[in-house]
Amino acid sequence: MTRTTVTAGRALAALALAAPILAGCGVLPALPGPEPHDLVPSSVPGAEPTETGNLSPDGFDQARRMAVRIRNVGCDSLSTGSGFAIDATTLITNRHVVADSADLQLSTYDGRDIAATAASTASLADLAIVRTVDELPAFPELAEADPEPGDAVTVVGYPQGGQLTVTSGQVMGSTTDPLNENLGQVLVTDAPVEPGSSGSAVLDAEGRVIGVVYAKNVDDMSFIVPVSTLRSMLADEAMFVASPTCAG
Asked: Which Pfam families match (predicted)?
């Protein structure tokens, strides 16, 4: 799939969010709750992207190997999302991607199915951890610091539950999280995302993770949990609790 064309949004003066936020990268109900409810089922990955965004060829190869497609089969719903490995048997995604699941089905860029053993979610931010039985193909380095405004970023994920897609843009700045007020500051970028992009890794030019996609607004600005928040939450096990299933 060729890279989605970046459509410049209006300038975010002081990054005040006058436009409504579309939770979970689509026109969806407010969080928390299961979402999205109108996505097509995921399918076997199609042709590889022909664009590498802001990544080098080696960086792109690493990125596609660590990206994971997530299919959430609920008791009466089906949704898709994205995630990425942080070690051989652990991946990161969004809380709303794994919410109310009866079964989480994971697949890698080469069509391999990976069994999930457990999922846990954070209450402070729209983040979740999923543990796997089999080892994931690769995992990236987490950046040491958040990016600065103007820095180039690349999003690697599975929008609409389809094939692996790469989009690119830049950091526009930061703002108070419009969905999780206690979280603090989140990043705003103009990298295009769609339903199913939720949980995608956001990478810098060296292929390091600088954040996690979780929402966008009507101006097509995407919202990112920054890597500093991800790092601090991963360092405190109490930040994550077992994710409830749709039956429990």
From this structure: Trypsin_2
pLDDT in tens, 43-96: 333 334 446 777 778 878 888 899 999 999 988 888 999 999 999 999 999 999
Question: What is the pTM assigned to this prediction?
Answer: 0.78
Residue 206 to residues 49, 84, 140, 192, Cα–Cα distance (Å): 19, 16, 10, 20
One-letter amino acid for residue 215 of the chain? A
Report domain extents, the chain.
68-139+233-242
